[in-house]
Amino acid sequence: MSSTIREADVGSSKVTPLPARAAANTAVPLDHRVARNPGMKLDLGFMESVRSVNRSALERRVASLTKRRSIKADNQAAWLLRAVACMDLTTLNSNDTEERVRRLCAKAINPFRRDIVEGLGISGETIRPAAVCVYHPFVATAVDALRGTGIHVAAVSTAFPHGLTPLSTRLQEIEASVRDGADEIDVVIPRGLVFGAKWRELYNEIVSMRAACGDAHLKVILGTGDLATLRNVMLASMVAMMAGADFIKTSTGKESVNATLPVGLAMVRAIRAYFEETGYLIGFKPAGGISTAKASLDWLVLMKEELGRPWLEPDLFRFGASSLLTDIERQLEHHLTGHYSANHRHAMA
Amino acid sequence: MNILDRYHAMEYGPAPEARNEADAWLAARDFGKALFIGGDWKAASGGKTFETSEPSSGKLLAKVSDASAADIDAAVAAATKALPKWSAASGYQRAKVLYAIGRAMQRHQRLFAVLETIDNGKPIRESRDIDVPLAIRHFIHHAGWAQALDKDFPGHKGVGVVGQIIPWNFPLLMLAWKIAPALAAGCTVVLKPAEFTPLTAILFAEICERAGVPKGVVNIVQGGPEAGVAIVNHPGIQKIAFTGSSEVGKIIRKATAGSGKKLSLELGGKSAFIVFEDADLDSAVEGLVDGIWFNQGQVCCAGSRLLVQEGIADALIAKVKTRMSRLRVGSPLDKNTDIGPLVDLTQLDRVKGLVAEGARQGAVCWQPDAALPSSGYYHLPTLATGVSPANILAQEEVFGPVLATMTFRNTEEAIELANNTRYGLAASVWSENVNLALHVAPQLKAGVVWVNGTNMFDAACGFGGYRESGFGREGGREGMFEYLTAKLPLGPIIKPATTSAQPVEQADGSAIDRTAKLFIGGKQVRPDGNYSLAIATAKGKLAGEVGLGSRKDIRDAVSAARACKAWPEATAYNRSQVLYYLAENLSGRAGEFTARLTGLTGATPKAAREEVEQSIERLFLYAGLADKFEGRVHQPPARAVTLALHEPVGVVGIVAPDTSPLLGLISLVAPALAMGNTVVAVPSERYPLLATDLYQVIEYSDIPAGAINIVTGRSAELAGVLAKHDDVDGLWVFADAETCAKAEAESIGNLKRVWSGNGRGLDWASDEAAGDAFLRRAVEVKNVWVPYGD
């Protein structure tokens, strides 16, 4: 039985595909639609079979991976555009205001200077971030600002970034954001459940969060910087997927260590194992600390090498990022002009 | 294709490494004067050249001087001339030169990498990220050894002029592995690169010129077999270091027999890659990529035999196939290439032939569906399943991107399969269970074992093989010894044994007749041929008769030694106590042995007593050292420990001298036993009764059956039998020059480790005829790499 990663066969699936939504980016020529992960029963035996994660070997893999692939010239420009299309443009600061969020949305709608769009010859398509990601109080503002664009609104939720409030409170928070129009919900897990190996409790919590989301996408943030081992990352990823996560996400951006490639490798391998077991494609979102164009290429290479082309689309891959967009703009300008650019030459969010 | 097309395609596209600097370098050289001898660039004396071409296109790169025997003479003369000053230079001075070489190489890293890729065909990612940085690391690391020589290797000095012959698979890296320790040790060098890949050695010679390497210290002679033969046979060379095929290694072993040249051989392999059911399978798959698909599989230590536990075999093979289909085969200068061309058409034909033969013998050979470039010597990565141990793909070194797969049921069978080979270079063990991994590693007959990794190398860690993968180590402290000689107190020249010592007078008949037998497998046995050899006293009387051992007795003794597991598996403390007990028991019979010595050799009672006492002292010494001659923990620049374990060589044949017949025998047998070897000893031909007396002491000293076996008879004949026995791992011969040379020459069946006195004995009574120099020969150094982190 080949384990080659295939696209899920939506036709024969009893599971409802993700709700039809206007795409943020035009004309995505995908020959697949992602069937929504229905989850599965908590299978501790399956978890046991994936618990072998060798940190040194993963570190060696990512170290050579980023050296094995090099993306140059027009391909590099195309890949950087892809990074933008797979971006959750994010602001998660305690001093956020509605005006700040409106600015961010404006940037998402119109990410590139006109000369760059024309120079790259991409005016025939809309290429812009897939979503804007905010705290709950700004969901309505963002929904309003982004209405009609197809750009999704993601809300961080469930007592982000720590997850340490009563479950009922956290579920109400999800429901409130969904009511306000968020169609993607980024939830956090209480990390203590992982340390205590309380897999059943973690599973049950995520199952209720998924129920609270309704049609909204569920992204489960593991807080990998807190989880100590890649084995914990693998096991927590697996529980999240079994409980019905649409995406698994590395970090809140608030841990001392954010998205690292070894952590990402462990998570994408978890996604592959889940796919091989169930046939469902789960999305991946690295977040936190990804701020350079070069780093975004490394992540895209990781996805292509370990999971394949389907995971280079915004329905299966997102960057959680804030300053990354500006660095990509600078690189694109350099690609066009041969001049190194400066931040102030590009509109801020 | 516009940017939007590319945005949808999301392909890597070409990422060519610029080659203009390398092409400019090529264009500016006169390769007809490519011999770097005595600091000058010379044409071959016969004016001959050979061609080197680009494996990715077949295009001619250069016509390079082809050294003749006369050129080798000139190079050896230059090295000899430079030797006194270089070897007398302070460690600091030599360190500065090594450091300068390393730094200068760093400044020209990319040129080295691009040239290597153009000449060899290896992907630029590998030459850039692995070969060249590691080569530089060797020079900088060995600068330190140059300065630490006096402190760390007391009593040692550089071996002299060394001849080095290197292969084409890692041209610059193998050069570094050879030259760096030689220079650190104060040796001067004549090095011959491979004909397929001469270029980076030429650039290296230019670096030497600029880095202030004194003229004649490094001589680089380009050439083919004629030059190689001239180096191997040159009387002005004191050591040969060779990396290449086992076939050529054996020819070199034979050619240098009796010459007194020190020899290190790093040869072929068929290394096992063992995946247990609790391994991180995805990581094991990446290990295979770094193992068998590194440098197109043209790697002596490539993990070419995948041994996978039955329960996970299907899952792992599926993952391997998926991964193989993502390997990119293409131009080696493209940064996105994983697999480049093989080095030459002959190599491609050889690999294709082996794959076809393997398929004929029942292997199922699978290749990913990928297009090959239209020119160049490319071979797709190949997975062979259904491979039986008898299949040619499981037996022969393919030296190509071909992985042979077998399954095993349990740990014991994994080890058995892994060791079911004539080779013994490297092995990988994949398991998340450290108990299992460290249980398996010591049982693998391989000089390097990687736990949850593969193809890890470092200048601080030893690399080299067991069995027919050669002997000697490169890298680390153990590698330095290959370029050093220890001062041992020489004894007299040993003359060939004659039968002139036949007794002329019979015994007086007053004592009860005693039959001295052979001692095999813990039992006294009669010789298979049932002939005896009369032994005379010093006065020519009949002292007794010993069994005339034959090849069959050696066969039985080797079987017994091989079957003895109790001794090598005993703790060092246990061996220590047994050897102490042997000393204690010998001491209890000191008077008897003194009388025997006096009677046989005519030594004065005082001298004989002294030899017996020294023998006891020496047993005591090795009993005490049994648990002290330990390995090391190396520190490679990675989050890993490398355990340099001292393991017994295995079954060691010992042909003991006539001089100091008791002390000589014990001086050799005791260190071998102390390190856990099992021994087949051929005692002095003239005075074997000491050994037959000794087995009585051995019998009640708790030494396990088969740990020591004694076969009396004709030394020269029995030495030859031991040399030709392919289950003998080591052979120590202190006999006449002809016997020693013959033993070396005939050792090539399994490339056993031979230590011969070259016709000289040692001054056995000297305190310097004991200690580390002996223990070092009694062990193999196995480097076990254990990366860690959770």
Structural overview:
The complex is a heterodimer of chains A (about 350) and B (about 800). Helix content of chain A is about 45%, strand content about 10%. Chain A is of the alpha/beta class and about 350 residues long. Chain A has a single domain (about 45-335), classed as Aldolase class I (TIM Barrel, Alpha-Beta Barrel). Chain A has an 8-stranded parallel sheet. In chain A, strand 5 (about 215-220), helix 10 and strand 6 (about 245-250) form a beta-alpha-beta unit. In chain A, helix 2 crosses helix 11 and helix 9 (about 200-215) crosses helix 10. Chain A is globular, with a radius of gyration of 19 Å. Residues about 1-20 and about 25-30 of chain A have low confidence and may be disordered. Chain B is α/β, with parallel strands linked by helices and about 800 residues long. Chain B folds into 3 domains: about 20-265, Aldehyde Dehydrogenase, Chain A, domain 1, CATH 3.40.605; about 270-465, Aldehyde Dehydrogenase, Chain A, domain 2 (3-Layer(aba) Sandwich), CATH 3.40.309; about 515-525 and about 550-785, Aldehyde Dehydrogenase, Chain A, domain 1 (3-Layer(aba) Sandwich). Chain B has a 10-stranded mixed sheet with strand order 13-14-15-12-11-16-17-33-26-25, sandwiched between helices. In chain B, strands 8-7-6-9-10-18 form a 6-stranded mixed sheet, sandwiched between helices. In chain B, strands 29-28-27-30-31 form a 5-stranded parallel sheet, with helices on both faces. In chain B, helix 23 links the parallel strand 27 (about 650-655) and strand 28 (about 680). The longest helix of chain B has 29 residues, at about 125-150. Chain B is globular, with a radius of gyration of 28 Å. At the A-B interface, helix 2, helix 3 and helix 12 of A face helix 1, helix 11 and helix 12 of B.
